[in-house]
Every structure is written in C-alpha cells, then in structure tokens.
Amino acid sequence: MTKDLTTISRRSLMGAAAALPLAAAATGVSTGAATAAGHGGGAPMPKSRSFKLGDFSVTTLLDGSVSRDGVKDIFGGNASDEAFAQVSAENFISAEAAQFYFTPTLVDTGSELILFDTGLGRGGIVAALAEAGVTPDQIDVVVLTHMHPDHIGGLMTDGAATFANARYVTGSTEYNFWSKMEAGNRVGDLVAKNVTPLAEKMAFIEDGASVSSGITAMEAFGHTPGHMTFMLESGGRQLVLTADLANHYVWSFAHPEWVVSFDSDKDMATASRRKILGMLAADQVPMIGYHMPFPAAGFVAPRGDGFRYVPVSYQLMG
Ligand SMILES: [Zn+2]
To answer: Among 123, 147, 263, 298, whose CB has the most other CB atoms within 10 angstroms?
Structure first.
C-alpha cells in the first residue's frame, strides 16, 4: 500500500516537473481569464478577522472599501510630485489612486463586547459583525475615536440606535467641538443627528481615562480637535488602536509631515503621528489603524526620518 502510493506520487511529481513550462503558461492564462470574469467566482472578501491579545479577543470588521483618485492632494499636500511618486513606486503602489478601507474594531474583554467606531452607516458594520457571530444588541460599549462621518455613520439605523443596549464613550474635547457647530456644517449636522440623541448614555473622557479594565484613552489631537487613540493591555501584551492617526499605510508613515487634507490641524496631526508611531516603533507594539488595508493590523518600523508599516502575518494568533 505504502509502496504503491510512493510510486504513484513519485510518478506524478515527475509528470508535474515535465509539464511545468506548459502548466505555468496555462496558469497565467487562466488567472487572467478568472480576473476578467470576476475573480473567485464572486466569493465575498472576508469582513472579519480575529486576533488574540492576552485574554482579549480583538476582531477587525470591514465596514466598506472604495477606491479614490487624486491621492497626492489628499495625502501629500506639501510633498513634491517627484517625492510622492518615488515613495509610491518604492512601495509598489500607484501615485494616482488608492484603495480606502473602513475598519471598526471589536474587543471582547471576556466580560464586555466593546466596539470602536461604527462605519459609514450603510449597513457594513452589522454585516461584518454577523460574520463574526455578533448581533448589534450584544454590544455593551460603543467607543467613538472621533466624529467624522465614516466613524459615527453606523450609530443610527432608520432613526433608532443601532446598538440598542450599549453605553457610549467618547472624548469630551471632540464632542464639545462638533456639538457646538452651527447648522450647515456637514459633520456637525451628522453629529446632531447621530451622536447628540445618545448623549445621555455617553461618558465623556479625557486623556488617560480607562474605558474598561486594560483599555486606556490616549489623546492624539490634530486629525480632529479631540481625536483619541486607545491602548489595549492584556496578559502582559499591548496593542494600540490608532484610529485615524495615520491614514495611509505608505505615505503617512514614510512622511508623517506630509499634509493630509482630512486633518483639521496639520501641524498637530504631524506631531501626534511622530509621537505615537515613534512609541510603537521603539516598543515594537502592534497597532490597528482604521484606514489600514484590511485586516488593518501591523507593526511600525523606523524608516529614515519616518516609519514603515509592516502588516501583521501570524504574530497575533495566540
Ligand atoms: Zn476616518
């Protein structure tokens, strides 16, 4: 039996080797055909990915993804065309267009389910949670890192709270800024519609506040006036939810000083990037960034005067 199998497998190996040039050519053709016809026969891209951090289970949830052009104006406002093109080429990406990702994160502490940000409000977060086996009514706490529409859009569904049993946590500086905005401001109007109705169930926090045991707020102002990041600590391990601290995995890391159109205070945003990315690089602490390519988890390495984002592979599996 064993002998037969060995013979067969040896024979097929030789056959495979002999046929290699043809097989390689055929593979090339079929890959191209599959891409043209819709790769994978329409199999959906995974929307949830779970990591272990001590006793915490940390799940990134893909709310949505879109491609955008005009990216030099968005991520390299003060960069030369040459420098922007060079960094893009060195990292094998286009300097003309980019894929955007929107990735809330769910932390299961063992006693609470804590959701960080809620997506664009087009149902993506509920679908991603369903893939992770969680229904919206199971969410105990919703944390808002800041109040841009792609983070608060999913708070309400048809005028009612999406997460019916949740309490809420957000930065006081952030809420005070947007809730006092006059009508007609796009973000202020959405805050009035989606956030203010929930204010009585909301805790307003400052830098260093504890959201839950092992989860601590760290201010990272600049992207918005009260933008917050969060340190997760469990079982002697750390991970930082960096939210919108750095919004492109190549450009914002390689050149933290490059002006990003989405940042409200450009200098403060750069200072926050340098400070927190520097800390993550020095301590080799992993991060999850809301707009990093899914599954949105990585490490930060020094690179010249800036940094390099290194996506997680299998480091956070257990
Ligand atoms: Zn955002």
So the answer is: 147
